[in-house]
Structure formats: structure tokens, C-alpha cells
Design a protein that fits this description.
Structural class of chain A: alpha/beta
CATH topology of the largest domain in chain A: Rossmann fold
Number of domains of chain A: 2
CATH architecture of the largest domain in chain A: 3-Layer(aba) Sandwich
Largest sheet of chain A: 6 strands, mixed
Mean pLDDT of chain A: 87
CATH superfamily of the largest domain in chain B: MetI-like
CATH architecture of the largest domain in chain B: Orthogonal Bundle
Shape of chain B: elongated
Number of helices of chain B: 22
Number of strands of chain A: 10
Strand content of chain A: 15-25%
CATH class of the largest domain in chain B: Mainly Alpha
Number of helices of chain A: 9
CATH topology of the largest domain in chain B: MetI-like fold
Structural class of chain B: alpha/beta
Strand order of the largest sheet of chain B: 7-6-8-5-9
Helix content of chain A: 25-40%
Radius of gyration of chain B: 27 Å
Low-confidence stretches of chain A: none
Largest interface: A-B, 34 and 26 residues
CATH class of the largest domain in chain A: Alpha Beta
Strand order of the largest sheet of chain A: 6-7-8-3-9-10
Shape of chain A: globular
Helix content of chain B: 55-70%
Number of domains of chain B: 3
Distance between the termini of chain A: 30 Å
Oligomer: heterodimer
Strand content of chain B: 5-15%
Chain lengths: 247, 502
């Protein structure tokens, strides 16, 4: 679905992404993981054209992602960020339906789609009239997800979607999100720094270090056969904190 | 959003039409006068004199100084005004050889201006002190001031700048005073009376000299030139209204110092209207029938209000329509933004009277230059707040707007401007209040408004008249602020006024 070949990106003197190739398969969830500053969020933002690469080529479903094509291609990729990025001046309903209204959907179609989204995310209908400031953190992320899914995109990009939530809500939403991704069967790219969250979502884990892919494999293989001392250290550091239930 | 701009545009269009109908009067001759009583009285006399023979004339009184009058005369916004030979030589034609009357006339003629023969009095400058002060320190002449460096002096602002004013007076007499401040001529008398200052500049025909019992120091080194009152008028007036010019010549030599001082006193001390004094003069001296039309309080207030509203609505409306897009531009381009903010910042520092005088050659006097000046002064708060409001938006929200596929223009309209609206409205409110206050200065260039009664009130020491301008101006400022607060409720989205629960 996404094909990144020989991509690099620097911000001033800081190199965020080293020349990298990355292929994201359609219809499954891929997790980008790594410590802060490893370039995982930058890669995600390169994919939907929020930033342009210094070198290399990015395609989405066979089409080049460029400044010219990005705005229309983005409507086929949902995007969820850590704080939700909800528009505070619009109600929940207006936030979710904004792009559908902007692109001229019929009111009835919007209503039908909204209904299926609130069902999918188990979001209370009566909260649709509320403003983002009146929602809890978990609700905000559900709204952000519904907004990302409104136009029924082919792919869904999520940048630390659960990063700002407290642990209880986070665990609950992890389970729900994984379930939703399975139901939808869409191409999902999720960025996290949490190894156990990564394992929760996918068997395809891309571990990044200094803007380059260090190892790409499943959780089990990361534990069993770390490709480098760095991988061993990264896994070890997180393993010491807690035990994942399914391990 | 769109509706607001449409409403503003309509408002602008209607007030523009009103302004036009106000300025496009069908009067034949326009007389001007400076903002001191003698000039206003002479202006009224000129108005009666030229309008006697079926010619219509109006009088733009209380204009803000020699430069304003002279520029307006050259531009043709006024046709006639009373001036003084000393002022013409020292100020208007400085650097030209004008030491004889024929040379003076020739120099004026080159600019298309003619000058009458002297009206009959010399109103020169003098330095006045209280009689007690003169007695205590043994002061009789200006050179005596050399002994009292600690004296504080208060001079009219024009005197401080003039070629024959304080700078050259100080040089001629080698005066040591350092505490020299500029203040309004009419306020200077009160400052002298209260003891806040020790000496002031006076015009020798001022009625206050007798009223406050002042002592005039002898100009022992003959520094001050003669200031014979004359009438300046445009050369083309002789063709347009020959009878009016003939009437003007009848005024020559009819007013001596005693008469002028008496007329000044009748207005300033006996509180009689300039028009009444002027009418009495032309009836008795020129045998012209003249009726002073007294304008009632309500009509005066209505006119001031209407003039003021026109100034404020057009200048503020145009500023909003111009400054918001400018702020958007500045927010979108960092370098250009610094340039834009720099320029509107500099505009703000230009003194208002300087800006007015600068614009007279282009726009004349009256409403238009005042509106342009107010427009320029209103830009900074709106541009700055629009810029700040847009730049202050959470980057995550901007990124989300782009990420869901909004084009930059749609993002601006649907997301960024609504989020910046509170800041933009705050800027507009600031501009509006400043605008209402600054618009009172419009009276200095004949734009009318609440500044007119304030100026006249200060000149005549008439508190009621000052309040007649000051109170409505304050009420208008509050009303405008209240109006924009209501508008803010309509345009600032409800979601932005909520406190977060999370």
C-alpha cells in the first residue's frame, strides 16, 4: 500500500530519516516503534505528505505522494495524533463530518456513516453535540478515530494515539482498537514507543533507530533473536518494566 | 464570517455616501481660520463680508495651525483666510526675500496667492509675566530674563517651532532657561495664573493680557517682526467672485489694536459668540446686513455625532477589511510578516498632526485626510492580533487540518480563522477605542466630530463646551466596545469559550 524507496529527511542539521526503504502491505497493521527521535513520527508524516522527503520517492497505492497530490490522497488516509487534534470550535459531530460536508456528501449518507462509526467505536450518540473540551481523553481519541474513518479511507495512520491517556483507559482502548482494526481489515500504520502496545496490535513490528530500520519482525522474534545489541537493550529496557500478559 | 464582511462592506458603502454628501457642498467660497479666537472672529467677519452680495460662503474654523491653513489654501480647499505678515515672512516664505510689501506680494503671487493691504492692527508676539513676578524680580524687558535661569517658560507649540519663535529668541537674547515646555496657548494663561509657569508667549491683541493683568516685557533687541493682519486669498477668486474680492478690500485699515483686542475680549471674557461679534462689526463698519445664526445644542450635538461616526465607521471598517488579510499574510510568511508588522508599527509612531499636514496636498482638508489617518492608526492592533491569533494555534490542530485533507484555503476558513477570532476581535476592539479617541483630532483639519466642541471649548475656556465633546466621545468609545463585545459572542465559536474537563 505504501512504498518508500531511498527516503531521507533532515531538519536543519538534524537527520531524522536516513536513506531508508520501507514497504507497508495492504490490509494489515504495521507498527513503527523505537525510542524518541528515531524518526518514526517523521516517517508517518512523510507517508501522508505533511512533510516532503529530501531524497527518494513515496507512493501510496501506486500514486506518487507529492505536494500536489497530497491533499486529495490524504482523504484516502485517516490520521490520528496523540492529542487527538480535534478542532475545539466544532462539536463532536461537526469534527467527524467536516470532510464529508466539505466534499459534498448528501446529509443522509453522512448520517448513515456516522451511525456505523458510533456503533463501531461504541461512542454515545448524545455526546455528539458536545465540544471537544467537554469530552474525556478516551472519548476524544474515539472521536479522532471516527473523524479519520469518516471518508472510509484505504489506510489509517496513527501517531501515538494512546500516548496521552491514563493507563486504565489506555489498556481498555488498546483492546478496542485492535478489535476495530481486525473488523475493518484496513491498512493500518501505528507509531508507538511502547513494545507491549506494539505487540498488542501487530506481528509486523518495524524497530527504528536513528532514522533507519534496525529490525523488522514479530515480537517473539525480537525477543528470541535480536538483530543487534541495540535491539536487545531496547527490548530489555521495556521488559523490565512489566510483563506482557500473552508472553 | 462571510456575513460579517458583507455587513461591513455595506456599512462602508453607506457611510461613504454620507461622507461624500457632507463634503460635496455647493458653497461658492470657503473661508478658513486658525484655532485661536482672533482668527475665528476674523474668519466670521470675512464670511459675512464676502457673502454679502449674494455669494454663498462657509467658514471652516479652528483648523490646526498655519501649515494646515496654508496647504489648504494652496490646494484650493479654502479660498481665503486671515494671516499675519510676520508669519508669512518667517514661516511660509522663509528663505525668500520678502522684506518689503511689494516683494512679499510678488512671492505670494508666484504661488497663486494674493494679499490684501493690512487690516489695521499689529498682533506680534510678546513675552508676558504676572505683574507680581515683574515687580518682585525687577523685570522690564526680555533681556532681564537672562538673570533668571530657573524660570519655567510655557510656550504654544507653534511658538516653540517657529523660525521667529523660541529657538531664535533664545539665541538673540542668550536666554538660559531650560525648563521650557510646549502647551496650548489658551491653557498657558491658566498655567501662568496658577503659578505653574513664570512666563508665556502672548499675542499682543489677546484680551487675556488685560484680564489677567499681565506685564509684557519690552522686546529691547527688536527680535519679533511686525505681524500686520492681512487677508490671504487665492488669485483665482478675483475671476470667480470679483465682488467678494471687492468686499475684502473694504476691510483694509478698519480694525486697529484696540478694536481687535475688544472683540477678542467680548468672545473670550464675555462669552459672546464669534459670529455675533463679527456680525456687529460688519453691520456697523461696512453697513452690510449680517445675521449670526446660533446653532442649538441638539443640532450641534447631532452634527458632531454624525461627523464623528462617519470618521470612525469608514476608517475602522476599511481598517478591518485591510488589516485582517494583512495579518493573515503576515502569519503565513515569516519574513514578510516581520516587514508588515514593522511598517504598521512605524505608521503608529507618526504624530497625528504631522500625518494630517502631510496628507493635505493630496486629500485637502476635512473628512478624507482624517479618515486616511485614522485608517492608518487602526491597522496595527488588528494586524498584530490577527497575526498573533493565527500563529498561536496549536500545531497539532493545524497538522490535523492538513492531514484530513483540507486545502490551505479551506483550513484557513474553516479552522484557523475561527480559532484566531477571539484574538482578532480583541485587536478590533482596541483599534475601535483608539479610533474613537483619535478621531477627536480630526477637528484640527476641519473634519468636525466631537473634537470640534473640545477644541472650541479649550480655546474659550468653556468647560461645558469641552464636555459637550468629551462626554459623547467617551460614551461612543464604550458603545463601540460594547458593540464589538456582542459581535464577539456571535463570531467567537462557543466551543472556544468552554473550560476543558480533561
Amino acid at each position: 500500500m505504501f512504498n518508500l524507496s531511498d527516503i531521507s529527511k533532515s531538519f536543519g542539521r538534524l537527520r531524522a530519516v536516513a536513506p531508508t526503504d520501507l514497504h507497508i502491505s495492504a490490509g494489515r497493521t504495521t507498527v513503527l516503534i523505537g525510542p524518541s527521535g528515531c524518526g518514526k513520527s517523521t516517517l508517518l508524516r512523510l507517508m501522508n505528505g505533511l512533510i516532503a522527503p529530501d531524497t527518494g520517492r513515496i507512493t501510496f497505492d501506486g500514486e506518487d505522494v507529492t505536494a500536489a497530490t497530497a491533499p486529495s490522497l490524504r482523504r484516502r488516509m485517516g490520521y490520528v495524533i496523540q492529542q487527538g487534534g480535534l478542532f475545539p470550535h466544532l462539536t463532536t459531530r461537526q469534527n467527524i463530518t467536516l470532510m464529508a460536508r466539505h466534499t459534498g456528501w448528501a446529509a443522509a449518507d453522512i448520517e448513515t456513516r456516522l451511525q456505523s462509526l458510533t456503533d463501531l467505536t461504541r461512542f454515545p450518540r448524545d455526546a455528539l453535540a458536545r465540544y471537544p473540551a467537554e469530552l474525556s481523553g478516551g472519548q476524544r481519541q474515539r472521536v479522532s478515530l471516527m473523524r479519520a474513518l469518516m471518508l472510509d479511507p484505504d489506510a489509517l495512520l496513527l501517531d501515538e494515539p494512546l500516548g496521552a491517556l491514563d493507563p486504565m483507559v489506555r489498556y481498555e482502548l488498546q483492546t478496542e482498537l485492535a478489535e476495530i482494526f481486525r473488523t475493518l481489515g484496513k491498512t493500518v500504520v501505528l507509531v508507538t514507543h511502547d513494545l507491549f502496545e506494539a505487540a498488542h496490535f501487530s506481528k509486523d513490528i518495524v524497530l527504528l533507530r536513528d532514522g533507519a530500520v534496525e529490525q523488522r519482525t514479530s515480537m517473539q522474534m525480537l525477543l528470541a533473536e535480536p538483530a543487534s545489541p541495540f535491539v536487545e537493550k531496547f527490548v530489555g529496557a521495556q521488559r523490565g518494566l512489566t510483563q506482557a500478559p500473552e508472553l | 464570517m462571510k456575513n460579517i464582511f458583507v455587513a461591513l462592506a455595506l456599512l462602508l458603502a453607506t457611510s461613504g455616501v454620507t461622507a461624500f454628501s457632507l463634503t460635496a457642498s455647493a458653497q461658492d467660497i470657503t473661508v478658513g481660520s486658525k484655532k485661536f479666537t482672533e482668527s475665528v472672529i476674523l474668519g466670521e467677519i470675512l464670511k459675512f463680508a464676502v457673502s454679502g452680495d449674494g455669494v454663498a460662503a462657509n467658514h471652516r474654523r479652528d483648523l490646526g495651525g498655519t501649515r494646515v491653513l496654508w496647504s489648504a489654501l494652496l490646494k484650493g480647499d479654502i479660498d481665503i483666510y486671515p494671516e499675519y505678515t510676520g508669519t508669512i515672512r518667517q514661516e511660509l516664505l522663509k528663505g525668500t526675500d520678502t522684506h518689503t510689501l511689494p516683494l512679499l506680494r510678488a512671492a505670494l503671487a508666484k504661488q497663486g496667492i494674493r494679499m490684501s493691504a493690512p487690516l489695521g492692527f499689529n498682533n506680534t508676539y510678546a513675552i508676558g509675566v504676572k505683574k507680581e513676578t515683574a515687580a518682585r524680580y525687577g523685570l522690564t524687558k526680555i533681556s532681564d530674563l537672562r538673570r533668571y535661569a530657573e524660570f519655567s517658560l510655557g510656550f504654544s507649540n507653534e511658538f516653540l517651532d517657529r523660525g521667529d519663535g523660541w529657538p531664535s529668541l533664545q539665541t538673540t537674547y542668550r536666554l538660559p532657561q531650560r525648563d521650557v515646555r510646549g502647551l496650548d496657548h489658551d491653557l498657558a494663561y491658566r498655567g501662568l495664573e496658577s503659578g505653574a509657569i513664570d512666563g508665556i508667549d502672548v499675542y499682543t491683541t489677546d484680551a487675556e493680557i488685560a484680564y489677567y493683568d499681565l506685564f509684557l516685557l519690552e522686546d529691547d533687541q527688536r527680535h519679533f517682526p511686525t505681524y500686520d493682519a492681512v487677508i490671504l486669498y487665492r488669485a483665482d477668486l478675483a475671476d470667480r467672485a470679483p465682488k467678494a474680492v471687492a468686499s475684502l478690500t473694504r476691510l483694509e485699515g478698519t480694525i486697529d489694536e484696540v478694536r481687535m483686542s475688544a472683540m477678542n475680549g467680548a468672545v473670550k471674557l464675555d462669552k459672546r459668540a464669534e459670529a455675533v461679534i463679527a456680525a456687529e462689526f460688519v453691520i456697523s463698519r461696512l453697513q452690510i446686513s449680517a445675521t449670526a445664526i446660533e446653532i442649538g445644542f441638539a443640532a450641534r450635538l447631532w452634527k458632531s455625532t454624525r461627523d464623528h461616526l462617519v470618521l470612525v465607521l469608514i476608517s475602522l471598517g476599511a481598517a478591518i477589511l485591510f488589516a485582517v488579510p494583512l495579518g493573515i499574510l503576515a502569519a503565513g510568511h515569516a519574513r514578510l510578516g516581520q516587514l508588515i508588522l514593522g511598517i504598521v508599527g512605524i505608521v503608529q509612531t507618526i504624530p497625528s498632526l504631522a500625518l494630517f499636514v502631510f496628507m493635505i496636498p493630496l486629500l485637502g482638508i476635512g473628512g478624507p485626510p482624517a479618515i486616511v489617518a485614522l485608517f492608518l492608526y487602526s491597522l496595527l492592533p488588528i494586524v498584530r492580533n490577527t497575526h498573533a491569533g493565527l500563529r498561536g494555534i496549536d500545531p497539532g490542530i493545524l497538522e490535523s487540518a492538513a492531514a484530513i485533507g483540507l486545502e490551505p484555503r479551506a483550513s484557513l476558513r474553516i479552522v484557523e480563522l475561527p480559532l484566531a477570532m477571539r484574538s482578532i476581535m480583541a485587536g478590533i476592539k482596541t483599534s475601535a477605542v483608539i479610533n474613537v479617541g483619535t478621531a477627536t483630532l480630526g477637528a484640527l483639519i476641519g473634519a468636525g466630530g466631537y473634537g470640534q466642541p473640545i477644541l472650541t471649548g479649550i480655546r474659550l475656556d468653556n468647560t461645558a463646551l469641552i464636555l459637550e465633546g468629551a462626554i459623547p466621545a467617551a460614551i461612543l468609545a464604550l458603545a463601540v466596545q460594547g458593540m464589538f463585545e456582542l459581535a464577539e459572542r456571535a463570531v467567537v465559536p462557543r466551543g472556544l469559550r468552554l473550560k476543558s474537563v480533561g
